[in-house]
Amino acid sequence: MLERMNCFAPLCCLCLERFSAHLAVKISRSRNHNFRIAQALSLENQHIYRKKMCNLIKWYCDENGYVFQCVDCKHFQVCFGTSMLTLSDEEFGYFTAVVADRTAHIPDCAEMPCKCIVLPTPSPNIQCILNRTELLQLHQMLQECDVEIRTAQMVALFRER
Questions:
Q1: Under 8 Å between Cβ of 100 and 91
Q2: Mean pLDDT, to the nearest integer, of 98-124?
Q3: Neighbours of 60 (CB within 10 A)
Q4: In the structure, what pLDDT confidence band is assigned to residue 31 with cuts at 50, 70 and 90?
Q5: Neighbouring C-beta atoms of residue 77, cutoff 10 Å
Q6: 130: part of which helix (H) or strand (E)?
Q7: Helix or strand or coil: residue 7?
């Protein structure tokens, strides 16, 4: 069976792509739903897909989620609640801006305890849905991450001199 990944063991972006492609091939070849699930859980080359990011930057991590960046491929992994997004630098900036905008303009329905705030993702078929409290937590997490990234960029400027 595949290992469960915890907060400090994100999958490498390249391994996620290989895993997704391999899983899609396995599922498309099978006809029986139960057979598909069994095949998905018993991949022949599991060691390839369990490779952890070995060279990452931890920008933020707490009980609600984390933001890591792979030094090799430069992609961000944003994990919040039960969702994990792997984003390019541009996508990360857009997602952060969307969260900030939604936080600045929280809809009236957000006062209810239900999840009614929809956040788009780079994938057109996947969206995050949050309640008001979760949106505020995600916004705080991304803001603190942004401060860390900007601080590191400024420090890097002084090192170059």
A1: no
A2: 85
A3: 20
A4: very low
A5: 23
A6: strand 127-130
A7: coil
Residue pLDDT, tens place only, 64-101: 999 999 988 889 999 999 899 999 999 999 999 999 99
Q: How many residues are listed for the chain in this entry?
A: 161
Cα separation of 96 and 90, whole Å?
10
What 3 state SS string does 74-121 have? CCEEEEECCEEEEECHHHHHHHHHHHHHHHHCCCHHHHCCCCCEEEEC
Element housing 66 (H / E):
strand 65-70
Give, for 61, the enclosing helix (H) or strand (E): strand 56-62
For the question of whether the overall pTM of this predicted structure is more than 0.85, the answer is no
- In 104-135, which positions are buried (b, 16+ CB within 10 angstroms) versus exposed (e)? eeeeeebeeeeebbebebeeeeeebebbbebb
d(CA 115, CA 132): 8
Number of C-beta neighbours around residue 41 at 10 A: 10
Residue with token string 């070995």? 54
CA-wise closest residue to 50 among 80, 19, 73, 79: 19
